[in-house]
Write a structure and sequence with these properties.
- By secondary structure, the protein is α/β, with parallel strands linked by helices.
- It has 2 domains: 157 residues, 3-Layer(aba) Sandwich (Rossmann fold); 171 residues, Dehydroquinate synthase-like, alpha domain (Up-down Bundle).
- It is 45% helix and 16% strand.
- The strands form 3 sheets. It has a 6-stranded parallel sheet, sandwiched between helices. A two-stranded antiparallel sheet has the order 6-7. Strands 9-10 form a two-stranded antiparallel sheet.
- The longest helix is centred in the middle third of the chain and has 18 residues.
- The radius of gyration is 20 Å and the shape is globular.
- The relative contact order is 0.10.
- The mean pLDDT is 95.
- The structure holds nicotinamide-adenine-dinucleotide (NAD).
Length: 340
């Protein structure tokens, strides 16, 4: 049985821990999966690992959500075959949520599953995508339709990577931290005021700890873990609708839209207006209402043609599987539009 540490290791201790694991795994071949931005993170990452096989191969894909596709995954599987990757090969995902989701997906399916390590380089991937063992790719225009629950062998969080992260990507990760704050009821206003310069390792650790505890209690999302989808029902619909309309937005920007809707549906106007001060609601055109609703109906979390939401019974007290009708959802969206 190979060692698996699903809980992240941080900074210098993380590199030491990863070196120990690399020695233990002794992979036959090591692949570093990156996109064409995060390839630059390798100059920080590689020299810190004494045990990394010097003969590693870099697999580079284009940046962005489009790389979470069957086509890119199939191409990567082919490359692994060409290199003769076997069951004892290793994939290290060095990148944002796209690289972590894609790399974990190909690793968990290649030859029924090979070892993989997540090295998140975006804030969103640090506090969310790299932790929790979910992976996936998009299919038929819908988010994360193909994927699995498979824990990485190791997660290394090094906040030094954030130095090169663009502001809008920082805000995208901030959105997931805010979601955790709304769910836990802890440090909401304090976290809402965070800026890249004031973000501390402790803030990242706390956000991860919150998610990791929920995942520990409900890995396969049969109950409690569903709360982590707060803001994601409308959010995923907004993300795929925006991309299909030729105006792609970040995952976090879409989650912010979803959080606005969820806070209105939860009857929490104070929290919603605090959120709007920092991240304003983006107008939803009337002709977008129907396509957005249809996308929510296709969300994996919905059953029997109803849209199920995560809401807050009160601040810090999530409830899930709340059925929301088209009328209630439309009212919430129109109320947000009219407050602009
Ligand atoms: N599996 C999960 O539990 C989970 C949870 C949340 C989100 N996700 C997924 O994560 C994805 C979003 O993740 P993301 O926001 O990290 O997107 P991303 O991976 O596309 O990264 C955003 C952008 O930032 C760039 N980037 C990343 N790190 C950088 C760095 N250090 N310096 C400079 N540029 C850098 C990337 O190249 C990309 O252009 C979505 O596909 C979402 O579905 C998965």
């Amino acid at each position: 049985m190979k060692t698996s540490h699903s809980y992240p290791f941080f900074g210098p201790e993380g590199y030491d821990g990863l070196d120990v694991l690399l020695q233990e795994l002794a992979p036959t071949k090591t692949f570093l999966l990156v996109d064409s931005n995060t390839v630059n993170c390798l100059s920080v990452f590689v020299p810190k690992l004494a045990q990394l096989d010097a003969e590693f191969e870099v697999l580079e894909v284009p940046p962005g959500e489009e790389s979470k596709s069957l086509e890119v995954a199939a191409n990567l599987w082919s490359v692994l075959l060409e290199y003769g990757a076997d069951r004892n090969s290793l994939i290290i995902n060095v990148g944002g949520g796209v690289i972590c989701d894609l790399g974990a997906f190909i690793a968990s399916t290649y030859k029924r599953g090979i070892s993989f390590i997540n090295v998140p380089t975006s804030l969103l991937a640090m506090v969310d995508a790299s932790v929790g063992g979910k992976n996936g790719i998009n299919f038929e225009g819908l988010k994360n339709q193909l994927g699995s629950f498979t824990q990485p062998n190791f997660v290394l969080v090094d906040p030094d990577f954030l130095v090169t992260l663009p502001q809008k990507e920082w805000e995208s990760g901030h959105a997931e931290m805010l979601k955790h704050a709304l769910l836990s009821g802890e440090r909401w206003l304090e976290l809402l005021a965070l800026e890249p310069e004031s973000l501390a390792l402790h803030d990242i650790e706390q956000s991860i700890a919150f998610k990791a505890e929920i995942v520990r209690e409900d890995f396969k999302e049969n109950g409690k873990r569903k709360m982590l989808n707060l803001g994601h029902t409308t959010g995923h619909a907004w993300e795929s609708f925006s991309a299909a309309s030729g105006k792609p937005c970040t995952h976090g920007a879409a989650v912010i839209q979803g959080l606005h809707v969820a806070l209105i549906l939860s009857g929490l106007p104070e929290e919603q207006s605090a959120l709007a001060q920092r991240y304003p609601w983006q107008l939803v055109e009337e002709e977008a209402l129907q396509p957005l609703w249809e996308r929510q109906l296709q969300d994996k979390k919905n059953a029997n043609g109803e849209v199920r939401y995560v809401l807050l019974a009160r601040f810090g007290a999530p409830v899930w599987d709340v059925e929301i009708t088209l009328e209630r959802w439309t009212q919430a969206v129109l109320a947000l539009n009219s407050a602009l």
